[in-house]
Amino acid sequence: MMEHDEADLWFRVIRYRSCLRLGMNRFIKLLIAVGLIGAAGAVGYQPGMKYLAKRNKISWETVKMESGDITRYVESTGTIQPVLSVSIGSFVSGPIVELNVDFNDEVKTGDVLARVDPRLFKANVDRDEATLATREADLERVEAQLQQSLNNYMRGNRLRESNEDFMSDREMDALTFEVKSLQAQRKLAKATILQSKASLETSRANLQYCQVTSPVDGVVINRLINPGQTLAAQFQTPELFVVAPDLREKVHVFASVDEADIGLIQKAKAEGRPVTFSVDAHPDEVFNGEIEQIRVSSVANQNVVTYPVVIAASNAELKLLPGMTASIFFEVDSTEDVQKIPNAALRFIPDDAKLVRKEDQHLIDGSTWKSKPQTDADEDDKLTATEKAAAAKKKNQRHVWMVEGELLKAVEITTGLIDYKFTELAAGELADGAALVVGKKE
């Protein structure tokens, strides 16, 4: 019995030692695992922090400075019009019996465009010719009577010279006044002939007016009559056709330019700068022109003052038709081979002062303008012309932003000529290829 208890005790001791040895092994392994994890964490801490910092770092979108040419334009809209529009009407009344032209027909000077019924006017010519013939015959009758009266007067005068008793004073007075009366009738007959000739010329002119002819070479851009239509020209000359001469040689583009830009247009005209424009009918084609006239008659519409500018353009292919709307670009200034800044860089302003180096934070945190005394907007109207000009020049002083390490730095510049994409760098420490910030990368 004693032996059995000792054996059981010994078995328990051996079993306890085994469990203790197994626990120690597991604890050692756990310590080794924790040590390895700690060592791995210690080794990967710095790279991990660098990765997180790099991951959270702001990336800036930039554009580069470049060199090239800059051209400034003034935009406007206008309407295509012929250089001259000749309105052709009718001087006489009557039904249209002949119509020889239609829209878009080309005509020459003297071409008969239409004909008014000439029968009444032909009858008037015949009547006046007959009247003239009557007046001429009457003149011949008066001249014959005058000649007979002169002969009688001369015979009486010779008889009186031979013997005064053959012709009394009364008989001589009768012969004398008969001659004078017939001479007056001859003058009257000649006057009536002149009157008849004038009436005949009027009738012939009216007959000629029955033919409506073109006074110029050109293109018929409008026809306002139809065959059989009756014209009534007694009170107002009816408009029958509108002919545009030289439509293939030249057309005018009438543009309205704002008063703020008219000075630039005057300068461009003096320098002979070109004008380009396009029309919706040919959107893929650019037409060239030149400033022909800047009219001094201003037009005011809702307190906006504009001036008409006339542009001349060739139209050999007749693509430019009267009434078309043109989008016009006046070249007013240009520079060649200058440093130019993308306009997107001028529009960028950082939205957080923490992203900007300390010496430039005043440009965006409000301290620059808040430190200045506030003035009324009306005070701008009290500035002299010289002060306003100086203030306008200061508007060209701007800032652009570049990346410097982790922050942004401002670079002061002075701008010059501006076009749609670029602005001339008039002054400033920027080199070709400099990367300018335009925004954050998403």
UniProtKB/TrEMBL annotation:
<dbReference type="InterPro" id="IPR006143">
    <property type="entry name" value="RND_pump_MFP"/>
</dbReference>
<keyword id="KW-1133">Transmembrane helix</keyword>
<dbReference type="GO" id="GO:1990281">
    <property type="term" value="C:efflux pump complex"/>
</dbReference>
<feature type="coiled-coil region">
    <location>
        <begin position="125"/>
        <end position="152"/>
    </location>
</feature>
<dbReference type="Pfam" id="PF25917">
    <property type="entry name" value="BSH_RND"/>
</dbReference>
<feature type="domain" description="Multidrug resistance protein MdtA-like barrel-sandwich hybrid">
    <location>
        <begin position="86"/>
        <end position="238"/>
    </location>
</feature>
<keyword id="KW-0812">Transmembrane</keyword>
<dbReference type="GO" id="GO:0030313">
    <property type="term" value="C:cell envelope"/>
</dbReference>
<dbReference type="InterPro" id="IPR058625">
    <property type="entry name" value="MdtA-like_BSH"/>
</dbReference>
<dbReference type="Pfam" id="PF25954">
    <property type="entry name" value="Beta-barrel_RND_2"/>
</dbReference>
<comment type="similarity">
    <text>Belongs to the membrane fusion protein (MFP) (TC 8.A.1) family.</text>
</comment>
<dbReference type="GO" id="GO:0019898">
    <property type="term" value="C:extrinsic component of membrane"/>
</dbReference>
<protein>
    <submittedName>
        <fullName>Macrolide export protein MacA</fullName>
    </submittedName>
</protein>
<keyword id="KW-0472">Membrane</keyword>
<feature type="transmembrane region" description="Helical">
    <location>
        <begin position="27"/>
        <end position="45"/>
    </location>
</feature>
<dbReference type="InterPro" id="IPR058792">
    <property type="entry name" value="Beta-barrel_RND_2"/>
</dbReference>
<dbReference type="GO" id="GO:1990195">
    <property type="term" value="C:macrolide transmembrane transporter complex"/>
</dbReference>
<feature type="domain" description="CusB-like beta-barrel">
    <location>
        <begin position="253"/>
        <end position="329"/>
    </location>
</feature>
<keyword id="KW-0175">Coiled coil</keyword>
<dbReference type="GO" id="GO:0015562">
    <property type="term" value="F:efflux transmembrane transporter activity"/>
</dbReference>
<dbReference type="GO" id="GO:1990961">
    <property type="term" value="P:xenobiotic detoxification by transmembrane export across the plasma membrane"/>
</dbReference>
<dbReference type="InterPro" id="IPR030190">
    <property type="entry name" value="MacA_alpha-hairpin_sf"/>
</dbReference>
